[in-house]
Amino acid sequence: MKRIVVYSHLLFLILLIFNNCDNPNDFPILKGPYLGQKPPGNIPELFASGIISTDKRELNSVFSPKGDEFFFAIYTPEPTDKCVIMCSKQVKGVWTEPEIANFSGNFIDVDMAFSPDGNRLYFCSIRSTQSRSVPEPKHDIWFCDRLENNNWSEPKEMGELINSSESETYPSFTKNGRMYFSSSCQGGYGNKDIYYSQKANGAFSKPVNIGSPVNTQYDEGDTFVAPDESYLIISSRGRPDSIGRSDLYISFKKKDGNWTEAKNIGKPINTEVYEYSPFVSTNGKYLFFSRFSESAADIYWVKANIIEEMKREILK
User: Nearest-CA neighbor of 236 among 264, 195, 269?
Assistant: First the structure.
């Protein structure tokens, strides 16, 4: 009888050890949409606190159109001064521990965006190009194509039609393939403006400055465009109605095709520090953005009700 009890205890210990070995790095088992996180309310919350938003400096983020991949960037100022793109995937219903994307890790890589079909991933990078062997301190837009093994191809630069001698950042796409992005190229309204380029027959057209009243003498950047092109969310700083160092603003497309003046989204989304890098979930329910202060840089999310509320107010 004692022998049976001892064997039972041994079996229990073996099973306990085996179950703990399923997750050797103590990464939690995350199931469901949005890495299994409880959806936020009308007050911004850290996204996946302790999992994605940690004591590191997390920057912009994006979900794939299917919602089964999550990319975000981490900045490491010392000693590498790099920004790497991390990726978590939903495999058999469970989210994987984030790891460095196969195309990132050696340069400053940020500002990810998916093509409408999810098979091309765009991002911004400071890295060498075919025409520039040594990286210059400017961002260009690059892209990778999805491979059969669900990894990504070697990055390719967008080329001189899109990438100017100044910095181009934060691409975002409508469902018909029009790309919005920020550029510091000469001839704009301020130091940085919003442009768009239409994709047709596999090629992008010459970028067009979207003009006033969205672009102003102040900096406009970090554009998120709605898939149906009904609104833009941008980050801007220096405006008279600013709440903090950098705020999120929204502009709506009117029936005549023109954009409304960009309005400050206001508190509690904007605070006295930096808010930037907006992204709205594919179903339109949640607004993701980044918040940066002297002590932290994290990813937040909040219900996107403010979009419809401001639309009714502005377009009434």
Answer: 264
